[in-house]
Every structure is written in C-alpha cells, then in structure tokens.
Amino acid sequence: xxxxxxxxxxxxxxxxxxxxxxxxxxxxxxxxxxxxxxxxxxxxxxxxxxxxxxxxxxxxxxxxxxxxxxxxxxxxxxxxxxxxxxxxxxxxxxxxxxxxxxxxxxxxxxxxxxxxxxxxxxxxxxxxxxx
Length: 131
Known about the structure:
Elements (H helix, E strand, L loop, with lengths): L1 H11 L8 E10 L6 E11 L4 E9 L5 E9 L3 E5 L4 E2 L4 E8 L5 E11 L3 E11 L1
C-alpha cells in the first residue's frame, strides 16, 4: 500500500525531483588546428525546479598539450562544474557537467565555452521549462 502511495505521489507531483536525470554525454576532442569549434545540445522539456544534466568529456588528441584558460558558463538556468586542469597532456581527458534547472516556463538558452590558448570550443544549449 505504501508503495502504491509513493507511485501516486510521483505521478501527481512530477516537479518534485528525488534524483537528477542524466540527459546524455558528449565527447569533445580538441583539434590540433587553431579554429573555433561549435556544438549544440537540446535538453528538451524539463519540469520546473527539477534538474537534468549533460556530461562533456574534453580530450586532448593532438601531439601537443592543450592549455585550458577557463571554462565559462552563460545562462541563468544552467550551472557547470569541471575538473579540467590548466594543461591537458596528449591523450588526457577531463569532465565538465552542465546542469539545466528551469525556474520558470519557457525557452532557456545557455552557452558553455572552453577557452583554450589559441581557440575556443562553444557548446550552445537550449531547454524548455514546463509545468
């Protein structure tokens, strides 16, 4: 009976999130050529005040180390956490997790920038807050 009550609560109150929802993971390889790279990711519909996330793996695949000057998140409904060091040596990887937490209804745009020594990698984000 308690199990049925719990399932009914989840069905009636989907905005109450007890766990994060993992959307996807994305692999980003740093090109040895010094040119900006652009990517897109759509979080889709997300209940207000619940949270979903995207894991991004940055990999240094060239013959030289990659200098990471910073990881910058833009967009009020997004948060980003990273373990990327200042220097990624060839073959080394680091992880950045982007959380989408809509606080009001509608379309929410964001942008994650990996600022490298001679170029940047831009991940454009979009998500929709729903009730």
